[in-house]
Amino acid sequence: MDIFAMFFAGLGLFFIGLRSFASSFKSSNSRLFHSLVKLAGKRRELTVLIGTFAGAITQSGVAVAFMIISLGAAGAINVRRAVPLIGWANVGTTGLVLLAAFDIYLMIYLMLGIVGVGYYLKLYDNERFRFPLGALLGLALLLLGLATLKSGASHLNEVAWVNEMLSTSPPSLVLLFAAAVLFGTIAQSSATAAAISVTLILAGLFNMDQALVVLFGANLGSAICVYLLGRGMTGVGMQLVLMQVWSKALSVMVLLPVLIFELNSDYPGLETLAAMLTEDAGLQLTLVSLIIQLVGALMLSYLGDSLMDIAENVAPEGRAETMGRPKYLFDQALDDPESAMDLLGREQARLVAYLPHYLDSLRSEAQPGGLPVPQLHSASLSLAGHCRRFISELTVRTRSAPSLERIAGMQSRNETLVHMLEGCQQLYASLDHPFGEPMAQRMRNSIIEGLHALLLTLEDSLNDPEDDCEILLLMSSDRSGLMEQFRSDLLDSEASLSMESRRALFTATTLFERLVWQIHNFAQVLVRSDRQLVLGSGSDQASLESTI
């Protein structure tokens, strides 16, 4: 009974340490991870290094995959460039399998001693030392669990009935494979199953054939786990989920037939290759685990674009996702600031065109088939975020003073647009109310139609700033008197309007007034930007004439 308790305790310590180590690192350094992932998305030569590092630190390819999925769905990274990261993160998780193959007691004792001294000196209370101590404690518990697991497993074959069962009726490889698939699905990690397999093979409870079958089953289970966790996603999120699933599943589909052929014939295969490289059974299993992950990583590196084409057909983007992605912005445009600003202006024009649609479902002339406002708002903010990041990159690369002044104007426009998007969303929420009173309905319709006309004029002003901006400035000059009259009517209508209607309309008048002021400011920014553009082109022409 003591032996089984030791084995079970080792398993518990291993899982506690694994979760503690990964959680402490991710919670303290999520910004670092995001920065590294974005860097790898821009520079392909760093993909192998950053992906492997991320997998080694988190010891979970699933965790890294979903981090990349969240960044891809938010549009923060170039999705196709980030695809190989998913595969190389799986390669990094084999570090855990490698540790399981060695005697690591001395390292565990040193780590626990360091953590203990740190706690005694109250260093954990210091923000500076909290992360390293937490990560070191998690890693120490993880390794202690592996060592305890290995120690308990080494004594299991001393139990008479266990020894007799293993010698007389070894477990079926098919059943082992099925059990490993189930374990990999539940544990959310193939590296966990591989590390446990190393301890069991070193203890003599598994032979190499059985351990390899468990390895392949756990990889397939990990793929199933990712699919189950991401099955509710759509568009880019689901496409990246499929990349992780295919990375795991395709490596199993390619290499499992090789293992089956080797086990049923005299021809060499994976087991023979590992035996040629090392005599240590634990290292042999580690090498095969590394080969499986390398095959998946290389597939995503060299076939990633083709697989993404298939994924885009299987899980196409929805309408909201398409609206939230830039049509005109691309990294190469940053090398030419003037052209880049023109492209940025076209994206901002798309944002302005989205504004009237916030009111479409509230109007009496509403057309069916419009995008629901929550989805429209999410898409609009996503596109505005793309524009903001593009402006930041453009500012860093630009040296010309006139260009920097124009970029500042574009940035001001972008921030004003974000405030207008938020205002329209709030106005929709306040007016999406069943106003039963005729007076309330008239006031509601006046606000909606008045703002809708202003937003349409704003959209036109981007196409013809010279004439329409003047009209827009005139239309949005001052509506405070009108709103005061609205509020006065609301105060006088206590008997004819319910409290809910008056509260909603009071909120709407405040939001309307703020939106009109923002539209007026946006029109002024447009006028200034147009003048800067004219002056800039005039100075360029004068410079060219003087040169000639």
Automatic annotation (TrEMBL):
<feature type="transmembrane region" description="Helical">
    <location>
        <begin position="241"/>
        <end position="261"/>
    </location>
</feature>
<dbReference type="GO" id="GO:0044341">
    <property type="term" value="P:sodium-dependent phosphate transport"/>
</dbReference>
<dbReference type="Pfam" id="PF02690">
    <property type="entry name" value="Na_Pi_cotrans"/>
</dbReference>
<dbReference type="GO" id="GO:0005436">
    <property type="term" value="F:sodium:phosphate symporter activity"/>
</dbReference>
<dbReference type="InterPro" id="IPR003841">
    <property type="entry name" value="Na/Pi_transpt"/>
</dbReference>
<protein>
    <submittedName>
        <fullName>Phosphate:Na+ symporter</fullName>
    </submittedName>
</protein>
<dbReference type="GO" id="GO:0005886">
    <property type="term" value="C:plasma membrane"/>
</dbReference>
<keyword id="KW-1003">Cell membrane</keyword>
<feature type="transmembrane region" description="Helical">
    <location>
        <begin position="95"/>
        <end position="121"/>
    </location>
</feature>
<keyword id="KW-1133">Transmembrane helix</keyword>
<feature type="transmembrane region" description="Helical">
    <location>
        <begin position="212"/>
        <end position="229"/>
    </location>
</feature>
<feature type="transmembrane region" description="Helical">
    <location>
        <begin position="173"/>
        <end position="206"/>
    </location>
</feature>
<keyword id="KW-0812">Transmembrane</keyword>
<feature type="transmembrane region" description="Helical">
    <location>
        <begin position="281"/>
        <end position="303"/>
    </location>
</feature>
<feature type="transmembrane region" description="Helical">
    <location>
        <begin position="133"/>
        <end position="152"/>
    </location>
</feature>
<feature type="transmembrane region" description="Helical">
    <location>
        <begin position="46"/>
        <end position="74"/>
    </location>
</feature>
<keyword id="KW-0472">Membrane</keyword>
